Amino acid sequence: MKDKLLNSMQIFARAVVIPVFYLPIVGIILALSAILTNPIIVENGGFLFNVGKFIGSGLWPILINLGIVFCVGIAMGMAKDKKGDAALVALFSYLVFLGANQHWLDLTGKLVEYQEASDLSGSGQTIILGFQVVDMGVFLGIILGVVVALVHNKFYNKEFSGAFGAYGNTKLVFILLIPILLLLAIVLSYFWPTVAMGISALAGFIDKSESIGVFIYGFLNRFLIPTGLHHLVNTPFLYSDLGGRLIVDGKEYFGAVNIFLAQLTDPSIEVFDSSAKYLQYGMVKIFGLVGAALAFYHTAKPENKTKLKAILIPAVATSVLAGITEPLEFTFLFVAPLLWLIHSVMDGLFETIAVLLGVRTHGVGGLIEFLSYNIPAGISRTRWPIYIAVGLVQLATYYVVFKFLIKKLNLKTPGREDGEVKLFTKKEYKEKMTNKSGEAGDKDSDLAAEIVQGLGGKENIESVENCFSRLRVKVTNASLVDEPILKGTGAAGVIKNGDNIQVVYGPKVNGIRNSVDKYLASLN
């Protein structure tokens, strides 16, 4: 039962990543558009001001309609096959629910009268794509996405013969979903208000617990990274009303990310909302892990320092600039798990310190993202210099604590292993990728073939996805996965959670995923 539950959570977490994967792009462009609409910088109503408004108007519909984004993304991510069909059926399903829910509220006399959409705030209803429905926020998309995926996976390959042949496969999925959606439209109109009260109570508890709530959030968000379940911790706070609700310029926004971006476009706001406390977990990516890397280097054996430097420099750069930490974190996660616990605790503590000092930055990613969001926002509204000051203290603390523990406990961190620190040079890699005939083959194809072999072969692979830094693979038999082979392809680590395998490659994972997809397609 435990393995089955964990497997289901892994599948869901993998699917949630798909829409989240694109949202930082939207956010950064909106942040840049905010520069063009800032009357302090550009003339109000001028050419650049209107360009900024135009860009923002094109991107905001994505963030204010996250329900449909998650519905389609989750259905596609959880679908075992025919993912495009699953996404289209999810879109249909979302529209069916909206229409049916509005009509049921009208039939039962529950529609709340309003003049402006903002008048519905606190009423339990909202406007989505022109429909007045029960206000479920992003949870509506999550629920419908999961429902669509479950029905799709069970019936997408069901065939009929004769006159009914045209209604099999994914058409049957949609047919079966219609009564389910109509029933949900009725049930959720009565059931969801109770759930909403629970969500509000939970959000209120976390908000009132202040430093304790921030610490628990920060700790879990870091500690669960090896399992891939950390997205289940941060996503609700970033994109749902668990992360807060705020009316900006007559419109209601929910989720810490949306609230931050909405305030960014309103120069009249002097200090950003406290919901930004859920956006500080990127500090360790820019500062803390740099201190950890310095500790690894200074405690390494003298003969290993040169090779260790070659490992650490690109890993640190990836963490600091892009906010992708796994290549660096996985260098010590498995060899010194105590450090991982200390790492998670210190991350939560420093997030709490930053929040207590009044920091209101957008600090979830690396340095590039940090500058893109917070420079346009301004010092007075985000207090980002305090974030940097706390970060520098975090860097020094990580260095001292990690160095002390490594020496005191004789931990076998990178460079202190009993064996040689093995790195592949470019020449060795080319030789490794040379085929048996001695002629250089297609390096991408050869690498993909080795990865597929490490995953137990084509027959053992059910699906392949990726997030920011990991290849996420559903396999039939996890015992067939060969970790040494996968690590030989450049993986920083391999995580097995039931039949869900995560192979950590860092920023290059997109190219690797494409190579694996092409290789698997060539075997058909």
From TrEMBL:
Residues 445-524 form the PTS EIIB type-1 domain. Signal peptide: none annotated. CDD domains: PTS_IIB_glc. The keyword Transferase applies. InterPro entries: Glu_permease_IIB (IPR036878), PTrfase_EIIB_Cys (IPR018113), PTS_EIIC (IPR003352), PTS_EIIC_1 (IPR013013), PTS_Glucose_EIICBA (IPR050429), PTS_IIB_1 (IPR001996). The chain crosses the membrane at residues 12-37, 57-79, 86-105, 125-151, 172-192, 278-296, 330-346, 384-406. Keywords: Cell membrane, Kinase, Membrane, Phosphotransferase system, Sugar transport, Transferase, Transmembrane, Transmembrane helix, Transport. It is found in: Cell membrane. Residues 3-418 form the PTS EIIC type-1 domain. SUPFAM superfamilies: Glucose permease domain IIB. It is a multi-pass membrane protein. The active site is at C467 (phosphocysteine intermediate). This is PTS transporter subunit EIIC. It comes from Halalkalibacter kiskunsagensis. The lineage of its organism: Bacteria, Bacillati, Bacillota, Bacilli, Bacillales.
